[in-house]
Amino acid sequence: MTAKKFIAPFYERLSLILIGILAFGFVIVQGKEILDPLMFGFLFAILLLPVSGFFEQKLRMPRSASSFLAIILLVAFVGGVLYLVGSQISRLMDDWPMLQKQIAESLNNVYGWIENTFNYNVDKQKALIHKTEVKIMSSGTEVVGTTFGAVSSLLLFYVFIMIFTFFILFYRKLLLGFVLQAFGKDNEVIVHDIVENIQGILRQYILGLVFEMVIVATVACAAFWFIGIKYAVLLGIIVGLFNIIPYLGIFSALALSVLITFATGPISNAVWVGASVIGIHLIDANVLLPAVVGSKVRLNALITFLGIILGEMMWGLSGMFLSIPTIAIFKIIFDRIESTKAWGYLLGGDNEYKKFAEKKMKTE
């Protein structure tokens, strides 16, 4: 006589799921200081794995040396981008006296427009701004100290990312062996499939983002140069860099581009720059993003947007970057485990429903 399999009621299973989600979220929030650089290190290790493997197999280098050399190449690439941005910012600083004059003229025009439109006296406007400046200067020491602390923390954060990247690359076989042993021999095929898919999709996603960033920056530079913007290269790079922040990056790029253009040229140029940034974003969101990135990570827009918001609430800016690859990892896992396929279906897009409908028609 076989024992009857017990299935818990739906409300009990739902309660356990909600408790698990809350506990998982609590651990993520409390463990931010260690999990944040660890997650970035994991992504960079996946990206650099083919490079490290090439050094090991083709050049017969030991794993420690190949991992270190791969990280050096990554740091050199990031350093090259930062040098390019820094050189453009230094040009902006060289023209600071001219910028001050342009800003003063633009502010006078704004003062006049406010006075004519709202009947608010120019002297009162200047008094209000002066009062705000005094408050800011009075807290200048605190601001400098906070900025220094933030820069120091940021540098330490990057150092931890590189250390985690090195250790994950160096101990990758040990980590894979642990995962295989933890889930047992019966699930070895599924675990291998999940690991391979996570590596492939995340690597394609990161490279797709970089490729998209380069295309957007190039198009933006060309558009700004055609308009006649003095700092076309700097603004184009800003648009490209901020574009990798899903949904919210466009607003930051738009504000910075319009502000710098407004301070260095006529208002008409600022309007054209704003229109160009919006146009580039529309083309990118509807054509480039689905073709380059969307085909790699099949997530629906609602889940993506919620993930970005929750990521920002828990980990700030880094949480916004990590939200999409993290959700993609969960979707890969959910899709390959029978009891969690419904969650994978929830994270997917319309293609998931089409696949489900086609499968159902074939079975019928």
Please outline what is shown here:
This protein is mainly alpha-helical. The chain has helices spanning 10-30, 32-57, 63-94, 96-118, 122-138, 140-170, 172-183, 188-227, 232-242, 249-264, 267-294, 301-315, 317-335, 341-347, 350-363.
Summarize the structure in words.
- By secondary structure, this protein is mostly helical.
- The radius of gyration is 26 Å and the shape is globular.
- Helices cover 86% and strands 0% of the residues.
- It has 15 helices and no strands.
- The protein has helices at residues 10-30, 32-57, 63-94, 96-118, 122-138, 140-170, 172-183, 188-227, 232-242, 249-264, 267-294, 301-315, 317-335, 341-347, 350-363.
Give the SSE layout:
Layout: H1 10-30, H2 32-57, H3 63-94, H4 96-118, H5 122-138, H6 140-170, H7 172-183, H8 188-227, H9 232-242, H10 249-264, H11 267-294, H12 301-315, H13 317-335, H14 341-347, H15 350-363
Summary tags:
single chain; 364 residues; mainly alpha; 86% helix
Helix content: over 70%
What class do helices, strands and sheet pairing give? mainly alpha
- State the separation between the terminal residues, measured CA to CA: 34 Å
Stretches where pLDDT is under 50 for at least 5 consecutive residues are: 139-151
Note the beta-strand portion: under 5%
pLDDT averaged over residues: 78
Listing every helix as H and every strand as E from the N terminus to the C terminus, the arrangement reads HHHHHHHHHHHHHHH
How many strands appear in the DSSP assignment?
0
Main sheet? none
Q: Oligomerization state of this entry?
A: single chain
Overall shape: it is: globular
- How large is the count of helical segments? 15
Radius of gyration using CA atoms only: 26 Å
